[in-house]
Amino acid sequence: MINAVLVFNNNGQPRLTKFYTQLDTAVQQRLLSEIFTLVAARPPSSCNFLPLPPLLAPSSRTASTEHNDAPSLVTYRHYATLYFILISTSTESPLALLDLVQVYVEALDRLFENVCELDLIFNFETLHAVLAEMIVGGVVVETGLEKVVEGVRARGRVAKRPVNESRAGLSQGIWAGR
Amino acid sequence: MFEKDIYQLIRGLRAHKGAERDYINQALAECRREVRTTDLDAKATALLKLVYLEMFGHDMSWASFNVLEVMSSAKFNHKRVGYLAAVQSFRPDTEVLMLAENLLKKDLGGADKATIALVLTTIPHVVSPAMANSLLADLLTRLGHSSPAIRKKTIVTLYRLALVYPETLRPAWPKIKEILLDEDEDPSVTAAIVNVVCELGWRRPQDFLPLAPRLFELLTAGGNNWMAIKIIKLFSTLTPLEPRLVKKLLPPLTSIIKTTPAMSLLYECVNGIIQGGIMEAVEGTMEGDEVARLCVNKLRAMLVVEGDPNLRFVALLAFAKITSSHADIVAQHSDVILECIDDPDISVRTRALDLVVGMINANNLQQIVERLLKQLRSAGKAPATADATQDRGIPHGIEPLADDDDEDMQKTIRAKETKSAQAPPLPDDYRTSVIERILEMCSRETYAHMNDFEWYIGVLVELVKQCPASTGSGTFGSHHAGVGKEIPSVADAVGDELLNVAVRVKAVRPEAAAAAQSLLLFDQREQMFPAAGSGGQGVLSAAAFIAGEYATLLPSVEAVLASLVHASSAHLPPQTLASYLQAVPKVFTTMTSDQRTTWTSARRTNTTLLIARVIHFLEPLTLHPSLEVQERAVEYLDLMRLASEAASSQPTSEQSDGYAEPPLLLTQAIPSLFTGMELNPVAAAALRKVPLPADLNLDEPINSNLQTLLQQAEDDASDFASGQADEVSRFYNEKPSAVAVTQHQRPAADSLLDPPSSALATRSSSYQHDAETDPLDRAAAKARQRAERRERYKDDPYYIDPDRDGSGTSTPTALHNILRSANGEELDVDAIPVMELKLDAPPEGERKAGGRAPVAKKKAKRRFEIAGDETLEGGGEDEGAKTTANGGGASVAAAVSRAKKSLLEVDSSGLSALSLSDDASGAASGRNTAASHLDVERRRAEEEEMTRAIKEVERLRLEMQRAQERIQPMGVPEEGTVVRRKKKKVKKGEGLEGDVDEGEGGEVAKRRKKKKKRREGEVGETQQTDEVVVGGEGGEAETPANTKRKKKKRQVTFEEEA
């Protein structure tokens, strides 16, 4: 199963954190920064699989059983300014997870039309909604792009980012005092 | 005043660059206020902002009650925010969770699909066993919902329910199965079920065998690659249970491999064939050979494909799985696998390295090691400063930064994946693992693949230079060394290896000694240990031991001694320093013990100069904080002072015309401390075979009068302190020019000045016994010595006399005697236990036996002879011992892993006890577990009772809560806490008990390992009684006898239990 889904940008700023187990906020932050440290050190030619971060590293090396409840795989994909991370157990297929991230990003792209980091910052609720259509409780429920998009739209209108947001801080005009 | 909405918060954050923290604090304060207003819109907005800030590590658990309020709003937009907040912020200890239960039930039963979906996605994050029990019925009805989206989410939610409350599956599984078998069901629902079944599958594969036909159908129907992958994964756990599946699966799998355009599916097919044991199952048949060839060729293709490191990574993973069963097939592709150890990607390299270790042989070993070495050499180390900046593993939260690169952020993320440009230096842990692998490869099967040990020693020296700067060991925490075990650094491992080669391979000892010298020499230190930290220094302790033990083989003894006693050595870590201290007298001895050359004044000057340098080095160390170092320094310091005395008073050849004997202390006494039996490697299991002596009674006190004696000694001490203070001051202020010499006890050195023959007659010095007296004389001399010693220590409470009866009375001067004997002890070198051992058995015999024993097991490899481990006879027992040891280790490890559950882990072990095969189709598999079934039943009954009770309590609590809410909405009821705690405690108690048991087992196992290694003589062969283990240097004092015996006793009881 999938234990956690994380999205953060090139500076390690989180854009989405979803843990499928209840975890202390401080621990979440630590895990996030550990993974960011790992992922930021990867040269571009590397593969998309990370070694386990120290927090998740098995306490002993005897965990050699084929299957285990413990997370054993950290998969990541890097798109423009964002890293998408999946932490999963051995029941997931590594290559299929990469495709799953692709579906996720494509779904976001459909919803936002040329999605960029700013969209996700302002609409992080939508980010959660899309994920909820694909993964429930750590188990993948949908991998079809159409159905995911359809499911999110059924929940209500997806907001586009505020107009002119690119000049943030200067153009508070119409939004100010709302 | 206007409230901010979420956009304004984010925008504000982005505008307040540099002052984010203040801005956030201000925003949090606002949220706190807003969340308490009665306006639900404001509450929801505030919550959304809090959720956003929570992502950056700002705790919002205090708002859990408000989360609940927003969740219960009638508006979907509010609900959406509320449920999201619940998912993101509720923790196991969130108190309001129980209040949420009814709300969840209500929303689950509602008509709005979106709301139901919200509840379904939330439940997995917040569910507890009690809640699961009460939600179960509501969820089951949702399985029949008209919308497939709801159905599939319900199925997954039920799975998560089952993880905390396995009983869920009893009513749920038949329904889920029905849906799975329904061919008209929506494919996405079927896919969701397959996902769930795949998760459940590996826990109880036998329960899912009846589903095989349907799954097979789904697999061959195709269409959904994700589902196909999951089915294949599931089948790979089923095939070992049902061999007939293999035949059935083979055709579709091969056809998928041949035809599918999806690489992930292809890989999982290959992987499934490997993992499911299908390759073994069909081995030998035409089909089987074809499949094996097909799989391996596909994997090979994945390895060589250009530009996709992911494929290389997973292909290596798959290869790793077949090495144990199909080593030959993997070996055929060693060429491409070897290429991967030079892959630019470290993940790939690590995988390849794992494989390569299993592939080495005598022919390719050197080549592989050279490649790895080149990698280490060329990569350059990560500078320490870079590490510091990159180390973000500190648990302070990430502050949201105002982003300044808006252009970047508007970059569409659909663009091709991009990454930073420059390649970082090798990380330290990779470096460490490469070095470990090299050592593992080279030392495999007692150097079975090693052809050239000279080369190997060169490699080891090279590896020292490549050691990453260590953080763990090599610190000055001498106090910790005794308590918590230091983590051995990789440099220690290199040192051990060097030592191992030096001991086992006689032929290269000179090279090993030279290598040790090159490591030790002070002027080469810069070159040898370029790492900023104390990276490679762990090797020094082994190097010092080699230099000491094989000092005669050192190319330049003088240089080594000079480096050993160099002032900078005193700052080494205590462990290394202790090893240095042991090596110093050994090296010193080789330089000064020459008996044949005459004692010229030049030689005397030389010797005294050397001694002076050693003394100069040792003196400050007598105050070293590490006890081990201190003890050794004190011992050798006094020995050196003696030697100095002897050297200066011995007449030189100039004075006596012609040949002058060098001082006997230098030529005979001190060398005899360090020469003895050859050190041989002893098998780890040999210790366990040493039979316990029949007459060993550990319950009998060694000295029944010990308590009184100690009491008296204490009394004496106080007497002594008051009455004989001057004696104390005299004792401490005695000039260090010579040892304190009392009237009636001449120093041994004096006696050595006399001609040997006369010395023998008057004094008890036995240095010449071996050489000059016949056995009869020797026996007489021994008896005489004993008598003398007994006389001397008559009043010494710490001297345990075998002949003295328990009622030994001590005189008021006991402590005085202790002091005196502490002073005079080294005068009687004979009293040092090492010497005593030699008195009792003829040394010639021992030597021979020691040399002969390993011969039988020596492995001849070209011209190198590698001494195998020495052990006692009885191979079968050895096996048994090994397995018990392993078993113990495994159980300990299991206990550890159980205690330290991985962070994100969702424990599914509860499922393994629950059988799903209650229905007729799968009844057969459940039969044989009837006995355990009863147990399960009983536990279930208990659990049900428990949950019922908890439910009751909770209902009551809820009512009380409601009553309280009317008065004080924010109040957190105290009574509820108590109830919950109770429940938890029961569980924790159980868990703890188990852990403690396991832990004890582990401790005993450890203790067993720690036990000193010994070996006992066997029938027929005259073997030595005590073989000192390499590294465990001789010269042990007798004092720890007490503790050692205690340990033994503990072990005996353990074995009885086992």
Whole-angstrom Rg of chain A: 17 Å
> Major sheet of chain B: order of its strands?
1-2
Low-confidence parts of chain B: 381-400, 415-423, 471-486, 736-775, 804-816, 824-861, 875-899, 918-934, 969-1058
User: Any low-confidence stretches of chain A, pLDDT <50, length ≥5?
Assistant: 164-178
How can the largest sheet of chain B be summarized? 2 strands, antiparallel
User: Given the C-alpha coordinates, what overall shape of chain A results?
Assistant: globular
* SSE pattern of chain A: EEHEEEHHHEEH
Q: Any idea what the CATH architecture of chain A is?
A: 2-Layer Sandwich
Q: What structural class should be given to the helix and strand makeup of chain A?
A: alpha+beta
Beta strand % of chain A: 15-25%
Determine the fraction of residues in helical runs of chain B and give it as a percent range. 55-70%
What is the tally of helical segments of chain A? 5
Please identify the top-level CATH class of chain A: Alpha Beta
Q: Can you count the beta strands of chain B?
A: 2
Find the CATH topology of chain A.
Answer: Beta-Lactamase
Overall domain count of chain A: 1
